[in-house]
Write a structure and sequence with these properties.
- The structure is a single chain.
- By secondary structure, the chain is mainly α.
- It folds into two domains: 42-76 and 112-243, Orthogonal Bundle (Cytochrome Bc1 Complex, Chain D, domain 2), CATH 1.10.760.10; 249-425, Cytochrome c-like domain (Cytochrome Bc1 Complex, Chain D, domain 2), CATH 1.10.760.10.
- 36% of the residues lie in helices and 3% in strands.
- The chain is built from 21 helices and seven strands.
- It has helices spanning 7-21, 42-53, 65-68, 147-150, 156-160, 162-165, 168-172, 179-185, 195-204, 207-216, 218-221, 228-242, 249-254, 262-272, 305-308, 317-320, 352-360, 362-368, 390-398, 409-420, 425-429, and strands spanning 87-88, 95-96, 124-125, 131-133, 141-142, 291-292, 329-330.
- The strands form three sheets. It has a three-stranded antiparallel beta sheet.
- Helix 2 crosses helix 12 (228-242) and helix 17 (352-360) crosses helix 18.
- The protein starts with 6 loop residues before the first helix and ends in a 17-residue tail after the last helix.
C-alpha cells in the first residue's frame, strides 16, 4: 500500500487538489489499490520469472514467453504481427530463421500487453475473449481447449499460459521439427507421451527447476511430479506481480500527490467527457470488459486463413456465433498504452495519434486508411488482401454502431498527452526484472 493512500487526510487532500486542478472535474474512476489484485506468492512469482524467460518451454527451444511479451516493448513485441517459433531476434528486428524447419508464419493478431492481468475484475482475455470466466463449468472457465486442461487452475491468468505452449506457430514449432510438435500434430496433448508431458519432463530433468517448484508448491516438496497446473500457476504469479501498473503520474494525480500538465489535463477532460473515450475505457483498468466494432483495419492472415482461406477476422463473432458481434474486439486496458504499439487487434497503426483519429470516426477512418504497419519480413501479398478488397472493407465499416466524434488536431494531441500520463516508469522498470540466466542455460532475450 502506498503511504499517500492511508487515512481520511489523504482522501481530503486528493479531493482538494483535484478540485483545484479542474474547474469542473469529470467523474473519475476509483484508484487502484491492493484490494484490486489477487494475492501473489513470492516463491511462485520468482519461479515464474525464470519460466517466462526460458526457451525450454518451446518445442525447439528457440522462443520464450518473453520473446513476444518483452518489457523493452511494453510487454508486447513492437510488431504489428509477430513471429513465434522459427524466428530470430527481438522486437521490430525479429525475422525468420533461415535454418528453421519451416518458414515461420506471422501471428494472426497483435501480441497483447500484460499489464494488470492479476486484477480480480478481469473476466475475459485475448482480443476476442476466447478465454473467459464461466461459473457454470467445473473449471470455472471457458476456452477453446479441453476442459480437463483447465481443471485445478487458480484462475484465468494461469489458463492463458496454456495456449502458446500448444500452438505450432507460437511456441511448439511445426510438425516434424521436435517431439512436442509431433505429439500435438497427432492429437496427443495429455497422457504419458503427450506434448505436455514432454515439456514437463524437461523441467523435471533440471535440479534447479525441481528445487524451485518444491519451494513454491507444497505437494511437489512432498514428492509430487511437476504438473501443468504448477507451471501455469507460476507463470501467472510472475505476470501478476511483475506487470502490475498503478504508480503512473495519473495514479499519483488521482491520489492528489501530483498535478497533470496543462495538455494532459485537457486530454483528461476530453477522455472522461465530450470525446466519450470512457464510455468503453471505463473504470480503474480503463476497460468495460466488453466487445465493440470500431472499424479496425485488418492486416495479415487472420486467424481463419488456414481453415477458411481468407484473412477476414470477425473477432468476437468467431467465439459467440452471433452476427451482432461481427468485427467486435475486446476493449483493451490502457495502462502504458503509449509504449505498447503498434495499436489495434492487427497492429494496423504505428502512430497513436493516427489511431485516435481513426477511433473518433471509424467509418471515415477506415475509408481513408493508408498502409502503416511494422511487419517482419518477408512481404506477403496476403498482408493487405482484406484492405484491398472493397467488399471486405465495407463489411468492417457496416459493423460500426458508434457515432463519430469530432476531434481537432489539438484535441488529439491533448488525448495523447493524457494517455502518456498512464505510463508507469516503475512498472516498466520491473520488480524482478530480466534474469541474468535461466536453469536451462539457453539464451535469455534481453
Amino acid at each position: 500500500m502506498k503511504p499517500w493512500l492511508i487515512g481520511a487526510a489523504g482522501a481530503a487532500l486528493a479531493t482538494a487538489v483535484l478540485a483545484a486542478d479542474e474547474a469542473e472535474p469529470p467523474p473519475l474512476p476509483e484508484p487502484l489499490t491492493d484490494a484490486a489484485y489477487r494475492p501473489v506468492d513470492p516463491a511462485a512469482a520468482g519461479l515464474g520469472q525464470l519460466l517466462f524467460y526460458d526457451r525450454l518451454l518451446s518445442g525447439n527451444r528457440d522462443i520464450a514467453c518473453a520473446t513476444c511479451h518483452h518489457p523493452r516493448h511494453g510487454t508486447s513485441d513492437g510488431l504489428s504481427l509477430g513471429l513465434g517459433a522459427g524466428g530470430l531476434g527481438l522486437g521490430p528486428g525479429r525475422r525468420p530463421d533461415p535454418a528453421a524447419a519451416r518458414p515461420p508464419r506471422r501471428q494472426a493478431r497483435n501480441a497483447p500487453a500484460l499489464w494488470n492481468l492479476g486484477a480480480t475484475e478481469l473476466t475475459a482475455l485475448f482480443h476476442d475473449g476466447r478465454l473467459e470466466v464461466d461459473e457454470s463449468r467445473d473449471s470455472g472457465l471457458r476456452g477453446p481447449v479441453a476442459d480437463e486442461l483447465l481443471q485445478g487452475l487458480p484462475g484465468m491468468l494461469a489458463a492463458q499460459a496454456i495456449f502458446p505452449l500448444l500452438s505450432h506457430d507460437e511456441m511448439a514449432g511445426p510438425p516434424g521439427s521436435n517431439p512436442v510438435a509431433d505429439a500435438l500434430a497427432e492429437g496427443r496433448i495429455t497422457g504419458p507421451d503427450g506434448a505436455i508431458a514432454r515439456i514437463l519432463a524437461r523441467l523435471e530433468a533440471l535440479p534447479a527447476y525441481r528445487e524451485g517448484f518444491a519451494s513454491a508448491f507444497d505437494d511437489i516438496a512432498a514428492g509430487a511430479p511437476i504438473g501443468l497446473v504448477h507451471v501455469t500457476s507460476a507463470l501467472a504469479a510472475f505476470i501478476a506481480f511483475e506487470f502490475r501498473s498503478d504508480t503512473s503520474l495519473y495514479d499519483l494525480h488521482l491520489w492528489g500527490a501530483e498535478r497533470l500538465e496543462e495538455d494532459a489535463r485537457a486530454g483528461k477532460m476530453l477522455f472522461f467527457g465530450s470525446a466519450g473515450c470512457a464510455d468503453c475505457h471505463a473504470g480503474p483498468l480503463f476497460t468495460d470488459h466488453g466487445f465493440h466494432a470500431m472499424g479496425q483495419p485488418q492486416i495479415g492472415p487472420g486467424p481463419d486463413a488456414a481453415s477458411l482461406g481468407h484473412g477476414r477476422d470477425t473477432g468476437r463473432a468467431r467465439i459467440s456465433g452471433r452476427a451482432a458481434d461481427a468485427y467486435a474486439f475486446r476493449t483493451p486496458p490502457l495502462r502504458n498504452v503509449t509504449v505498447t504499439g503498434p495499436w489495434g487487434h492487427a497492429g494496423a497503426f504505428t502512430d497513436l495519434a493516427a489511431f485516435l483519429r481513426h477511433h473518433a470516426d471509424p467509418v471515415a477512418g477506415l475509408a481513408a486508411y493508408r498502409r502503416q504497419a511494422r511487419l517482419p519480413p518477408p512481404e506477403d501479398p496476403a498482408d493487405w488482401a482484406v484492405m484491398d478488397d472493397p467488399a471486405a472493407r465495407a463489411a468492417i465499416a457496416a459493423a460500426v454502431t458508434r457515432p463519430p466524434v469530432a476531434l481537432s488536431a489539438a484535441d488529439i494531441a491533448a488525448l495523447v498527452a493524457f494517455l502518456d500520463s498512464l505510463t508507469d516508469e516503475d512498472a516498466l522498470a520491473g520488480r524482478l526484472g530480466i534474469p541474468e540466466a535461466v536453469p536451462s542455460g539457453l539464451p535469455v532475450d534481453r
